[in-house]
User: Which sequence fits this backbone?
C-alpha cells in the first residue's frame, strides 16, 4: 500500500474538478430555508424548546428527491479501490485498528471579516462622561394606575398543552414566563402589561446613554471568568448575538456566567452562550396611554443559548425601540465549547473523525444539502440513510461493486460541518460520499464568495457501521 500522505495527494487529484474546487454549493445554500427565529423575541423572560430535532430530521428525509450516484467512471473507481480499499473492514478510513485521534481545531483566519470588524460590531464602550449612579434592583414592575390600554380589549383565552407546564394565552406561545409568577400568566404582550424580571440594578439618570455607560455593568462583564470547558470569544460589547443557531433564552437573577453555562450544558446540542445586560421597559408601552418616553426602565440579565460557536461578528443585536422606549444592550460576553465538544455518534454510523475543514471529493460525492440552524450531525445521518433508501434498487452493478468497497449508489461516509458566513453560524452542511476517507483529507475551507468569507467549524465525518 502506498504511503498515506501519497494516498491523500492522489485522492485529491483524482477527486478534483478541472476548475478550482467550490467545496460547497452556494445555490444549495441560498435555496435552504431560514429558521423562523434567530434570537430571543421581545416580552419574554424564558424561551425553551426552540430547536425541534424531530422536525429537522423530517426535513432531512424530505430533502431526498430521487436516486443519486457518484460521478466517478470505471477507471476512476479502480484507482479509488487501489487507494482506499475498505473491503472486509480495512483501509485508512475503516480499519479495525483505526482510532479516533485527537485533532486540534484550526486557528481561525486572522484576515477574515470576523476579526477585522471586531471593534465595529457594537457601539464603542465609553465609560467617561457624567457620573452614573446605580439604584438597588427592583422586581416590583408596578404599572401606574393612569396607564391604561388604548382602544384595546383582551379577547385572548387561555389554553393548555401537554408539552407546556402552565396554561398560556391562545395567540401567544408556550414557554414564556410572564408576571406574576403564578398561572395564569399575564401576557407581557398586552398593552401596559408589567414586563418580566428586572433583577439588575437600575441606572440613574434613566436614559439609554447612561445605561450603556454604566460602569457597574461593564465591571460585571469585564471581571467575569470563563467556565470550565468554555473559551471566551468576546467581552463587554454593546450588542447581543443573533444567528440561525438560536436555541433559547433564560433571564437570570445576577450576572452569573456559570449558571448560563449550566443551562447550555443541560441543553442538547448547545455549544455556546451569550450573557448580557438589557435595558427593558418596566411595562409594555405599546397601545398604552403611557408612551415609551414615560416608562421607567428595568435591567435584565439575559442568557441566550446557541447550537454553534459565537463570534464577535454575530453580535449584531444593538436593541430596538419599543413605542418610544429605547432598548439597549451592554456587558455582552460570548463563550463557546465547539472545539471541545464531540457530537453523539448517530445510529448506524461509526468511527467519528474530527476534521480541520470540509471534505471535498467531487467524483465520489453522492449528494449535499444545507440545513440552516443548529449544528446537528443527526440531520446529515438521516439525509444519508434516506438517500441510500432511495438508491436501494439502483442495479446489480452497484451491488457487485459494493463488495469491493465502492458503490457509486451508496453513501458509506458523510461529512457534517457548521458553515459560517463572516464568522456567523449559518447551519449544518452535509456531504455524502460513496468512498471513505481519512480525516487528513478534510481540510478544505470554502473561502470568499460575493464579498463574504465562508468558513467551517465543528466538522465531523462518519463511516457506515
Assistant:
Amino acid at each position: 500500500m502506498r504511503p498515506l500522505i501519497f494516498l491523500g495527494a492522489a485522492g485529491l487529484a483524482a477527486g478534483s474538478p478541472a476548475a478550482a474546487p467550490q467545496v460547497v454549493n452556494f445555490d444549495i445554500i441560498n435555496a435552504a430555508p431560514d429558521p423562523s427565529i434567530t434570537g430571543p423575541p421581545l416580552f419574554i423572560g424564558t424561551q425553551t424548546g426552540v430547536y425541534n430535532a424531530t422536525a429537522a430530521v423530517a426535513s432531512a428525509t424530505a430533502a431526498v428527491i430521487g436516486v443519486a450516484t457518484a460521478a466517478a467512471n470505471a477507471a476512476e473507481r479502480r484507482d479509488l479501490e487501489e487507494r482506499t480499499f475498505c473491503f472486509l473492514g480495512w483501509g485508512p478510513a475503516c480499519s479495525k485498528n483505526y482510532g479516533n485521534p485527537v485533532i486540534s481545531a484550526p486557528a481561525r483566519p486572522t484576515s477574515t471579516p470576523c476579526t477585522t470588524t471586531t471593534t465595529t460590531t457594537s457601539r464603542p464602550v465609553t465609560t467617561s462622561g457624567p457620573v452614573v449612579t446605580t439604584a438597588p434592583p427592583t422586581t416590583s414592575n408596578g404599572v401606574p394606575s393612569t396607564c391604561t390600554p388604548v382602544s384595546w380589549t383582551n379577547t385572548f383565552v387561555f389554553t393548555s398543552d401537554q408539552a407546556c407546564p402552565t396554561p398560556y394565552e391562545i395567540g401567544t406561545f408556550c414557554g414564556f414566563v410572564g408576571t406574576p409568577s403564578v398561572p395564569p400568566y399575564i401576557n407581557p404582550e398586552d398593552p401596559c402589561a408589567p414586563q418580566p424580571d428586572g433583577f439588575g440594578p437600575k441606572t440613574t439618570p434613566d436614559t439609554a446613554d447612561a445605561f450603556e455607560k454604566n460602569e457597574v455593568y461593564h465591571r460585571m462583564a469585564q471581571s467575569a471568568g470563563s467556565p470550565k470547558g468554555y473559551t471566551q470569544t468576546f467581552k463587554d460589547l454593546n450588542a447581543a448575538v443573533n444567528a440561525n443557531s438560536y436555541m433559547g433564552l433564560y433571564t437570570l437573577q445576577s450576572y452569573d456566567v456559570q449558571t448560563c453555562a449550566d443551562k447550555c450544558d443541560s441543553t442538547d446540542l448547545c455549544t455556546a452562550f451569550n450573557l448580557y445586560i438589557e435595558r427593558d421597559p418596566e411595562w409594555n408601552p405599546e397601545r398604552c396611554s403611557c408612551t415609551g418616553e414615560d416608562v421607567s426602565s428595568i435591567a435584565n440579565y439575559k442568557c441566550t443559548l446557541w447550537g454553534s460557536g459565537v463570534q464577535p461578528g454575530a453580535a449584531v443585536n444593538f436593541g430596538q425601540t419599543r413605542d418610544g422606549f429605547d432598548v439597549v444592550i451592554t456587558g455582552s460576553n460570548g463563550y463557546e465549547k465547539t472545539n471541545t465538544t464531540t457530537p453523539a455518534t448517530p445510529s448506524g454510523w461509526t468511527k467519528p473523525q474530527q476534521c480541520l475543514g470540509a471534505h471535498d471529493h467531487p467524483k465520489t460525492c453522492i449528494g449535499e444539502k444545507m440545513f440552516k440552524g443548529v449544528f446537528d450531525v443527526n440531520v446529515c445521518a438521516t439525509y444519508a440513510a434516506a438517500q441510500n433508501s432511495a438508491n436501494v434498487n439502483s442495479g446489480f452493478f452497484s451491488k457487485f461493486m459494493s463488495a469491493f468497497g465502492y458503490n457509486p449508489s451508496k453513501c458509506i461516509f458523510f461529512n457534517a460541518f457548521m458553515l459560517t458566513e463572516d464568522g456567523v453560524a449559518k447551519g449544518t452542511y452535509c456531504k455524502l460520499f460513496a468512498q471513505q476517507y481519512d480525516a487528513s483529507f478534510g481540510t478544505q475551507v470554502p473561502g470568499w464568495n460575493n464579498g463574504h468569507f465562508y468558513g467551517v467549524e465543528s466538522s465531523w465525518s462518519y463511516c457506515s457501521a
